[in-house]
Write a sequence for this structure.
């Protein structure tokens, strides 16, 4: 089986480096599935999960937006933040979710709604990846 080398990098350093048979994730333009030999491309990513498949095994990495660069034998993801399932602090994500929800519901003029909604999406994404809900 042919494989692709996948690197997920954040400003804090590398988070994932491995060879996989298929990568799928959410670009701004929609769901993307990448197999070895894919045409070169660059795409902005949504807050979402990167799914890394090898046989029956799928690993998940939560990413908070960024860019994906595809070359025929390599995929590089430059993410604002990225966490593998096993490094997600679920309590922290749940607290971030409640904090963002109460900010959104409070509807106060001094609350930055867009910022609160993005924080909520990051938290929900981490919870979904932790619970393997992708
Ligand atoms: P919080 O309000 O809990 O800080 P956040 O969404 O604002 O959440 P980010 O700014 O996206 O956090 O990330 C800051 C750093 O903290 C990044 O290095 C990110 O990987 C890490 N991080 C954030 N939340 C979690 C989590 N639940 N588990 C593990 N690492 C996390």
């Amino acid at each position: 089986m042919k494989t692709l080398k996948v690197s997920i990098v954040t400003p804090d350093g590398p988070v994932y480096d491995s060879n996989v048979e298929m990568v799928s994730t959410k670009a701004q333009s929609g769901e993307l599935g990448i197999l070895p030999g894919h045409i070169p491309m660059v795409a902005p990513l949504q807050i979402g999960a990167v799914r890394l498949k090898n046989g029956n095994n799928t690993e998940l990495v939560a990413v908070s937006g960024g860019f994906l660069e595809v070359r025929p034998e390599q995929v590089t993801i430059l993410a604002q933040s990225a966490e593998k399932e096993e490094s997600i602090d679920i309590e922290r994500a749940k607290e971030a979710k409640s904090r963002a929800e109460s900010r959104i519901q409070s509807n106060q003029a001094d609350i930055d709604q867009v910022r609160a909604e993005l924080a909520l999406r990051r938290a929900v994404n981490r919870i979904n990846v932790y619970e393997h809900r992708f």
The first helix runs from residue 90 to 106. The mean pLDDT is 95. The CA atoms of residues 109 and 124 lie 24 Å apart.
